[in-house]
Specification:
With 472 residues, this protein is an alpha+beta fold. 29% of the residues lie in helices and 25% in strands. A seven-stranded antiparallel β-sheet has the order 3-2-4-1-10-9-11. It has a six-stranded antiparallel β-sheet with strand order 5-6-7-8-12-13, covered by helices on one side. The protein has a four-stranded parallel β-sheet with strand order 17-20-21-22, with helices on both faces. Strand 12 and strand 13 form a beta hairpin. Helix 5 crosses helix 6 and helix 9 packs antiparallel against helix 17. It starts with a helix and ends in a 17-residue tail after the last helix. Pathway: Purine metabolism; IMP biosynthesis via de novo pathway; N(1)-(5-phospho-D-ribosyl)glycinamide from 5-phospho-alpha-D-ribose 1-diphosphate: step 1/2. Catalyzes the formation of phosphoribosylamine from phosphoribosylpyrophosphate (PRPP) and glutamine. It catalyses: 5-phospho-beta-D-ribosylamine + L-glutamate + diphosphate = 5-phospho-alpha-D-ribose 1-diphosphate + L-glutamine + H2O. Keywords: 4Fe-4S, Glutamine amidotransferase, Glycosyltransferase, Iron, Iron-sulfur, Magnesium, Metal-binding, Purine biosynthesis, Transferase.
Amino acid sequence: MSYDDLMLDKLNEECGVFGIYGHDHAPELTYYGLFALQHRGQESAGIAVADGRELLHHKGMGLVTDVFLNDRLSHLQGNRAIGHVRYTTAGDSRIENAQPLIFNFRAGTLALAHNGNLVNAGQIKRYLERQGSIFQTTSDTEVIAHLIARSAYDEIELAVKEALSMIKGAYALLIMTKDKLLAALDPNGLRPLSLGQLGDSYVLSSETCAFDVIGANYIREVEPGELIIIDHNDLRSERFTNQTQRTICSFEYIYFARPDSNISGINVHLSRKELGKKLAAEAPVEADVVTGVPDSSISAAIGYAEATGIPYELGLIKNRYVGRTFIQPNQALRAQGVRMKLSAVRKVVEGKRVVMIDDSIVRGTTSSRIVKMLREAGATEVHVRISSPPVIHPCYYGIDTSSREELIAAKHSVEEIREAIGADSLAFLSIEGMLEAIGRSDAAPNRGHCLACFTGRYPTEIYTEERETVLK
């Protein structure tokens, strides 16, 4: 198993966005903001900057630090900027799809940075192509740019509102012209987007952890269906739709977001601890040590240990210097790929009954490798506990599970999965237990969560190439 295989056995989010208006060091602060959001996407990064006269940009493949090596950042001058880190789900992994996307149209130059996925992008793209539009990328984000450019409205706010009325799906969107910065969140608020302030400057970010990095103060979340316009006249908020229902992706709390981020006023680390505690109440087991799969499962493991009284230990260590790919000289070494990512601490697990906490099981291959690793390190029993419900349906909103065939829980029972991964026991957290643990106060029954990957009930219409019917 290669490191790329390991990444495919986890849920991967599409990207993160960051923007700032009215600061003399906007490019540098955007760089630091993207660095804080690097966990949301490691395939490409980019920054666009405006100074009131023109729009400059730089983007490339790789990590933020790779893309902006040497003095590349110094060539970007301006007091407003938007940035983007990307993980590919819609569109190929290539430089043309790296964001922000830059377009020239009748009103000037436009930069777009998008977190999420449009479920009707294919239908709109085919329509626009029949009308003569020529697409330069395979990213669904370009659809938004074409809709804005084709609008009969000259005012950018009206053109954006018209475009947003035509798209469906998940989007936390930043749009920048030479003199304005706009932010929009889809009517379901599927992706997170927060507003902050640094002195007299406004800041927007996928996660609040970026505010902490640059010293900005959190103001509030961008609301579903809201369009924020920032220019020299300050900030104003408008609505592009009043038909809204908050259904944020549950995996923002479970896995995607950084532990030091807050979503809807709820700290991610503390919510994950509560997931672990609730899991302990639902699925206790006699054991000697609790360990979590780094990094996203550590908080849940601590919560499980606190609730059960079983000691928490670092039984698994993550190699933080493994990149997206690494050299595997021959097939004999390929199967050892998991050890490049994780290693077991023998002195911690040897002769012990181990509870291994993980945030999810997607395809099952990584779980089986880790269970085997713990046994080879001397664990006498390995009990696997998952701090989320079974993922049995694909996501169409910016997570890389587009087919049920990829999901082990869609085809197998819990007992069959336990046998497949080689664990002594296996349990998942219930949906209700997850909702109670996270503690959002939104209206029942979903409490403001998207549960589609657990239940198959999607908050929007779904369009696929096969035109399959999906429960709503």
